[in-house]
Amino acid sequence: MGSMEKTEPGHKLVATNKKAFHEYFILEKLEAGVSLVGTEVKSIREGRINLKDSYAHIREGEAFLFNCHISPYTHGNRQNHEPTRTRKLLLQRKEIRKLIGKTQEKGLTLVPIRVYLKRGLVKIELALVRGKKLYDKRETEKRKETDREARAAMKHGRRSE
After folding, report:
1. pTM for this one?
2. What is the CATH number of domain 5-132?
3. Residue 76 CB neighbour total at 10 angstroms
4. What is the mean pLDDT of the chain?
5. C-alpha distances in angstroms, 5 versus 16, 47, 71, 118, 122?
6. How far is 39 from 75, CA to CA, in rounded Å?
7. Rounded (5°) CA angle 12-15-17
8. Measured between alpha carbons, how far is 140 from 118 in angstroms, rounded to an integer?
9. Of the candidates 121, 38, 36, 120, which has an alpha carbon nearest to the alpha carbon of residue 75?
10. Using one digit for the tens of pLDDT, what is the confidence trace for 12-32?
């Protein structure tokens, strides 16, 4: 969930949605800002965000993020935020129009895959995804396993020289 590792210069990765990579084929990615209250930003900076069952939906020409759990800020008071409230995503109209057309295709969904800090601002990387069938998941696991074994063999081969 909250491994604070560097991705690109100026980006600080806060959370990834590992379940999304397992459950879906990622077709397209885009970056979006999020409309947050102060305690949510502070909580995200602490790495207390969970994207596991979250998804994005476009309603009345605006994009919203649902089921994203941001834990209440530890030093917050009674005006602390609600953990799973619906949050507005900040996208340009052109991007929203493009997504409306694509999400109405059969089987395509918008899922957040990463949350990171970019120049101090919270950004969410959204992905346009199509669900995997069980046999697709098995094939992906087999491919990962063979890649892992090949890397281990290469590593072991270099040591014996």
Report:
1. 0.74
2. 2.40.280.10
3. 14
4. 84
5. 11, 11, 20, 13, 15
6. 9
7. 135
8. 31
9. 38
10. 888 898 888 888 889 999 999
Are 50 and 150 in contact, with CB atoms under 8 Å apart?
A: no
CA separation, residue 65 to residues 33, 85, 122, 126, 160 (Å): 11, 9, 14, 10, 52
- Please name the residue that has the structure tokens 């020289």: 161
For Cα atoms 144, 5, 44, give the angle at the middle one, nearest 5 degrees: 115
Cα angle 32-35-40, degrees, rounded to a multiple of 5: 110
Predicted pLDDT at 132: 83
Best CA proximity match to 58, nearest among 5, 7, 97: 97
**CB contact at 8 A, 154 and 51:** no
The predicted-structure confidence for 89-142, as pLDDT tens digits, reads as follows 998 999 888 888 888 777 788 999 999 999 888 999 999 988 888 888 888 889
Amino acid identity for residue 48 in this structure: R
